[in-house]
Structures are given as structure tokens and as C-alpha cells.
User: What shape does this take?
Amino acid sequence: MSAASVLKAIDRSRFDVVPLAISKAGKWLPESQSASLLSAGKAADSSVVVVDDPANDGTPIGSPGSSLIGFNGPTGPMRGVDVVFPVLHGPFGEDGTVQGLLELSGIAYVGSGVLGSALGMDKVKMKEVLAFHGLPVVDWRSFRRWQWRQERDRVVSESECFGYPCFVKPANLGSSIGVSKAKHRTELVTALAEAFRHDEKVIVEPAIDAREIEVGVLGNHHPRASIAGEIVPSNEFYDYAAKYLDGKSELHIPASLTETDAAEVRELAVRAFTALECSGLARADFFLDRQTGKWFVNELNTMPGFTSISMYPKLWEASGLSYPDLISELIDLAVSRREERHGSIG
Ligand SMILES: Nc1ncnc2c1ncn2[C@@H]1O[C@H](COP(=O)(O)OP(=O)(O)O)[C@@H](O)[C@H]1O
Ligand SMILES: [Mg+2]
Assistant: This one.
């Protein structure tokens, strides 16, 4: 949906656009198939943007015979491409892997590099780095799947150190997939089992009774923060259904905050972006504790939802930057980042 939205809005007077879709099976579809999959009409059906293993002649990257030279060579999927806008969410898209491929290929790309993307994906490493930089994060414990298999009782009792309710999440995922709120031991055990189904590493946190505030960050070395927005989830927390299915969650832009809080959260957003070495864009998500008034950085999303009605673009629109201009600026930032990385000193 995000990719279709970008295709629709991108400034065609500046950019020649080559659509490229990747199937769930990992096939990079040829341009003609990608174009029809990503065409605005079809994208209205959210099930069609990514397809399951279609019969096609796409070149699977990493398959025998494929090479990086082929990747942006005369017949590869990236032939003649100057900049890639990887509108991809989650593992193998937003986690530094595709970014590494583009890095090796020498093609400029929108968004964070390998390190920033990888840190943004891993909830544990992200918190470690944020905490190191003095940013407020919710306390956490993390466990590996082998521990869950071999030392289940210890994992459960250590997870209980925060009391109830607590949150259990896969360390590397997103979209609230595999995320549960546990109110007692039975729910905790179910929640851990569910999270370990999705990931080999799991994170447990105390539940914060919080408002959920989000800030857009844009830039490379001198990132700037958008105004803040608030999510009011339709469910007990912002789970998958509340995010994507029931259409009842509310976005409030701007968030109703005191001037001090609004300024503080924007400053925290930029500090978090810098601490994680993000570039281009990220949406910084916060909890504002209703009991204490304290801010916590929950997470940074290095490729946030990017349809024209998603939070990130809407925050910028409300801050005075239109959706098409946002896309152009991100592409300019990608080019200047590449030039800087490959340019000579001085
Ligand atoms: N410690 C917490 N306290 C309160 N709510 C939480 C906590 N952790 C997660 N949540 C709820 O779960 C949602 C998804 O968790 P999040 O960490 O943002 O993972 P994802 O990467 O899947 O978006 C949050 O938007 C929030 O509603
Ligand atoms: Mg989230």
C-alpha cells in the first residue's frame, strides 16, 4: 500500500520511476508485473501488493547464477537505477539486509543504512543503544529460544520480575505481530510461546499505562522533527487489528500536549534518531506515562507506514511539507548520503 501510494504521488517531472515488487517467496518481479501489482487500482486491495510465489521469470537474488553485477548490470532488476526507495516493512526489508545489498551495489537508497536499519529492527539492541545515550526506555529482559526450550521455569520467573501486566514481544518483527499483554502467569506462558513462534529472541517489558505519541524525523546529519501526533488504539493496546483491520484507531495531529511536553518529545526524537545512526527518515514512537508524566522512547521505525494517510507523512504534512515534497526530499537525502559516503575528503 505504501509503495503504491509513493508511485502515485512521486514527482514525475523529476523522477523516472521503475516499479519493482518482491513476492513473499522472495522473487524480484519484472517491471511489467511489478507495475500492475503496484498500480493504484490494485493496491486498493491490500492483498495484492505482495503475491505468493507467482509463476514468473523474475530473477531471485541469491539464487545460483545470480550476482551483484547482474543486480545492477545490463539485464538485472536495478539496471540504470540511480536511487532505490525501499518501501519495505519488517525483516528482510527494513532490517539492513536489503540496505546491505544496495550498499554493495553502490546504488543510493532512501532511509537508514545497514547499521541504523538493523538497530531499528532489533528491540533489544535498540534499547541498549538508546539507554547508553541516556534516552529513557522502558525496562526490559530478553530471552533466547534455546532458553525457552531448556530453562522454561527460569524464563517465566525472570519475566515476572516486572509484575503484571507485562508485554511480551518478538525482538525483531513489527506490526504488533506476536505481541501480547499478559495479566497473570498463564497468559505470560502463552504470550512467551506465541512470541517464540515468531522469533528466536523475545523481549519482556512492564506494561506502561501510557498515551502513544509519535514524531516524524527527517534528515541526515541535521535531522528535524515534525510536530507530534497521538495514536488512540481501538483495542486495549495497538495490536494488529487496531493497526490495520478495524479502521477504528484514531490519529490525532497534533497531539494535545503541553508546550513543554511537545518540545521535549521532539528533542527526544532527534536524539534517538542520532543515537541509532538513522538517516533519511524514521518515526519515533513514545509512551507518555499517564501516572508519572514521564516519557519513554518505545521504538524507532526506519521505514514507517508510508501511505499518504499514514502517520509519518501526515505528521509532515501538518508540519508544512506535502507528501510529494516529502518523497522528493527523501530521494535528495539518499543521493547526498551516497555522495558523502563515496566522495573524497575535503
Ligand atoms: N511496555 C509497554 N507498555 C504498554 N504498551 C505497550 C508496551 N509495549 C508495547 N505496547 C503496545 O503494543 C504495541 C506494539 O508494540 P511495539 O513495541 O510498538 O511493537 P511493534 O514493533 O510491533 O509496533 C504498542 O504500540 C503499544 O500499544
Ligand atoms: Mg510499534
